[in-house]
Amino acid sequence: MKRAVIFGATGGIGKEIALDLAKAGWSLYLHFDKSKHRALALQKQLIKLYPQQEFFLLHLSFLDQDKKLLNLDKTLFPINALIFAQGITDYDFLGNQSLKTIDNILKVNLITPIKLTRLLEPLLLKHEHSRIIYLGSVYGQQGSALESVYSASKGGITRFAQAYAREVAASKLTVNVLAPGAVNTPMNEIFSTEILNQVRDEIPANRLANPQDISFWVENLLAPQSDYLTGQTIYIDGGWLV
């Protein structure tokens, strides 16, 4: 049985990934932090649609102390893939951000994913064609003003994936980053319609991405035929980055 952990499964992109992977026959761990009601609703929906598969809830804060992460591998059934779809930002000048805000962004987007990769690596190495996919951002390649810490965290996960992929490539554990541009998800609700329209006008494809545009590439990276693609960051941005 193919089984994956989707971190951030209740977010706009994470939920779409869960729906598409379940349709493709995957059993899933659906990670959530504060959105238990959304996680339960998603689990119920998937169990009804695909009763022959398994769908477990995984409650974990990416801001937890290390001791709360250490035994995670002992609580999971065998897994073939980790998908890190969680992420936070704070749209503001660096000079206005508290040290706690800076710390939280780095923990959620970069530090805890690296720690979880270290802790769950043994489970993945037991299987052929195992996968790790991180969601990065175009801002990891070209930093954004008012999101300097977020940009640093996404640039960091790109470089980590590039280096770590070389360590595990011989085991057929591939490590890649999908880096979306602007995506039509609740995370962008902090921006006005005017700003979003301005962003859309800068994108050659003349639209924001939909979560399905990202999930499509997750499915492709999980395929056994993708063994030779590793250490890469794939930009899904409608031509925004040139």
Task: Describe the structure in your own words.
- Pfam families: adh_short (PF00106).
- InterPro entries: NAD(P)-bd_dom_sf, Sc_DH/Rdtase_CS, SDR, SDR_fam.
- One of its GO terms (biological process) is monocarboxylic acid metabolic process.
- Belongs to the short-chain dehydrogenases/reductases (SDR) family.
- This is 3-oxoacyl-ACP reductase.
- By secondary structure, this protein is an alpha/beta fold.
- The protein has a single domain (3-235), classed as 3-Layer(aba) Sandwich (Rossmann fold).
- It contains 6 helices and 7 strands; from the N terminus they run E-H-E-H-E-E-H-E-H-E-H-H-E.
- It has helices at 12-23, 36-49, 99-124, 148-168, 193-202, 211-222, and strands spanning 3-7, 27-32, 55-59, 81-84, 131-135, 174-180, 233-236.
- It has a 7-stranded parallel beta sheet with strand order 3-2-1-4-5-6-7, sandwiched between helices.
- It starts with a strand and ends in a 6-residue tail after the last strand.
